[in-house]
Design goal:
Layout lengths: L3 E4 L6 E4 L9 H14 L1 E4 L6 H9 L9 H4 L13 E4 L13 H6 L16 E10 L7 E5 H6 L3 H7 L3 E4 L1 H6 L8 H6 L3 E4 L1 E4 L4 E4 L5 E4 L4 H15 L5 E4 L6 E5 L3 E5 L9 E8 L4 H5 L1
Parallel strand pairs: 2-3
Antiparallel strand pairs: 1-2, 3-13, 4-15, 5-13, 5-15, 6-12, 6-14, 7-8, 7-11, 9-10
């Protein structure tokens, strides 16, 4: 093993150095990186130079890859990136130009500023996300991460008992609806139907319990919608207290890997007339969270 792991906090976020991810990954380094992800949930590699294909190849070491859900909910538009495994987390249109303020994809993309967990709106949700910075603005555009294991641990025992066994319905249309973005066709909506996800799940790599809530979570199944939504809002508010949150300040060449099974994240504002070009690959979980909990 050649890598160096430097914790940012005792059990949340670490920087990994002494490795060039464009080169073939050695088995010992792969295992050490996975161990670091399991412990710290968010790991940062600085100063990388990666093509889309190299980013995808690195991600494949940690599981099968989700095709980008952007293509399912943005049918009939020109996509900038060729690889279906890459989600275009940029403010650029299909021709590589900064998107107009009213562009449909830009309005959809604004929902990334809500606390969320990648692909929790899919029956088999996301496991790891790997986001690589090609171009970043001089100011703004940070990403905040919330430690959902520590947030669960800090709940009172009465609250843990109250939420044990609860299941929420997750839908990408719910998160977009919070910003009143509703310009989707019936075909696009049908491609990504709502799915059930437990409010609490056991993180397989720790194994520790974690809250599994975010802006895609619409309501609690079997509970009146207003009551369920208030409960979800309370849990998100609890989990995003400063002691559970880390802010990543992007530099060109950063690759940040996070575990969606035990974190939430959100993008922060920036001057959207400036180019911000980040690209994400997300691996698939092993099964639906309902099946895993059974």
């Amino acid at each position: 093993m050649s890598i160096t792991v430097t914790p940012v906090h005792p059990d949340f976020v670490a920087e990994i150095s002494a490795i060039d991810l464009a080169r073939p990954l050695q088995p010992g380094d792969r295992d050490a990186i996975e161990a670091a992800i399991n412990r710290y949930a968010v790991v940062v590699f600085r100063g990388q130079t990666l093509t889309d294909d190299q980013q995808i190849a690195f991600a494949r070491h940690f599981g099968p890859i989700h095709s980008s859900a952007q293509r399912a909910r943005h049918q009939g538009i020109k996509h900038r990136l060729a690889a279906e495994e890459i989600a275009d987390i940029s403010n650029l249109d299909g021709d590589g130009k900064v998107m107009d303020q009213t562009a449909r994809r830009r309005l959809d993309w604004l929902a990334n500023r809500l606390w969320h967990t990648d692909a929790s709106f899919r029956a088999v949700p996301g496991a790891l996300s790997l986001l690589y910075a090609h171009i970043v603005p001089n100011q703004g555009g940070d990403t905040e991460f919330a430690d959902m294991r520590a947030a669960y641990d800090a709940l009172p025992e009465t609250k843990k008992q109250e939420i044990d066994g609860l299941v929420a319905e997750h839908s990408i249309w719910h998160s977009r609806g919070q910003l009143d973005v509703r310009t989707y066709s019936a075909e696009e909506r049908a491609a990504l139907p709502p799915v059930p996800q437990p409010v609490v799940r056991t993180h397989p790599g720790s194994p520790r319990k974690a809250l599994y809530v975010a802006s895609h979570a619409s309501h609690i199944i079997g509970m009146p919608v207003p009551d369920g939504r208030l409960l979800l809002l309370d849990l998100i508010e609890h989990a995003t207290q400063p002691q559970f949150v880390h802010t990543h300040h992007w530099r060109k060449g950063d690759l940040v890997v996070w575990d969606n099974r035990c974190t939430m994240h959100r993008a922060r504002p920036f001057d959207t007339t400036k180019v911000r070009d980040l690209r994400r690959v997300t691996t698939r979980d092993v099964a639906s969270t309902v099946e895993q909990a059974a």
